[in-house]
Amino acid sequence: MGSTQQFSLKWNKYQRNWDNYLSKLLNNHMFSDVMVACDGQVFQLHRIVLASCSSYFEKTLQNIPAKETPIVMLSEITELEMRTLIEFMYCGEATIDQSQLEALLKAAERLQIKGLVKSDADEELSDDAEERDSAERRRPERPEPEPEEPDGSESGPESPEPAPEPERRRSVLDTPPPPLQPLSAGPPPPPLPHPMGGPLASVGPQVSGRNWSDVCGSFA
Fold first, then answer.
1. Which residues does 202 contact at the CB level (< 8 Å), separation at least 6?
2. Which of 39, 41, 119, 152 is least crowded, fewest Cβ atoms below 10 Å from its Cβ?
3. What's the pLDDT score for residue 220?
4. Distance of alpha carbon 96 from alpha carbon 1, whole angstroms
5. pLDDT over 70 percentage in the chain
6. Other residues' Cβ atoms within 10 Å of the Cβ of residue 72
7. Distance (Å, rounded) from C-alpha 72 to C-alpha 55?
8. Is 50 exceeded by the pLDDT of residue 125?
9. Does residue 78 belong to any structural domain of this protein?
10. Is the residue at 188 inside a domain?
């Protein structure tokens, strides 16, 4: 089966609507299911609000059947103190004179009103927060790794040796020619043989021991 796409729905004005409706329930006495009597005055209230804001009312009302409308009798609490505590539970805030603050805090302590006295739920939340803070403080900080310094005993990677160059084949052109020898004055070379058997006449004033006049005379 393929997974179905899910959507998240959020009501941005939910908290404002709930706060306004609680005030409406308190002022109009709508859906009231419990009564609180003190100092000759009776207040029509709601179990869910009292139980969520007071540990005393939670323990008192949790075993009473829903079809019944119980009456909770309170002593040593004035009407003004009770009205102020009810406003605080339904609206989250209330206003009182400084001269009456001490007596109001004593009444809130008797009824274990959350937000005015320290309750078991507040202690659990506080313990959880302290444990998280303590765990964060105990968690060792991971040091940043330091760069390793090169050790003289350990050498780095050896560089590869250069490949030997291929042997070049020598050519005749690579052999320099022999140096030229200077001419030396020595005896003249022997006369070349004559094709007819006699010696060739050498360049000079004489040929075969005769001068040019004798040679010319022989032809005359």
1. 188, 191
2. 152
3. 45
4. 62
5. 53
6. 18
7. 14
8. yes
9. yes
10. no
